[in-house]
Amino acid sequence: HLDSLAGQIMSLFVIAIAAGEAAVGLAIIIVVFRGKIATNVDQINLLKW
Fold it and tell me: How many structural domains are present in the chain?
């Protein structure tokens, strides 16, 4: 597939799918840790008083 246009298109398609999966995974991680960090900050603020 190295010499044909179809192979190049297929490789670009695979790279695009992998980038999309990485973006979704990163978004899930950010959403999960955003909630945990907020609660930890609230607990730290309570320790100041």
Answer: 1
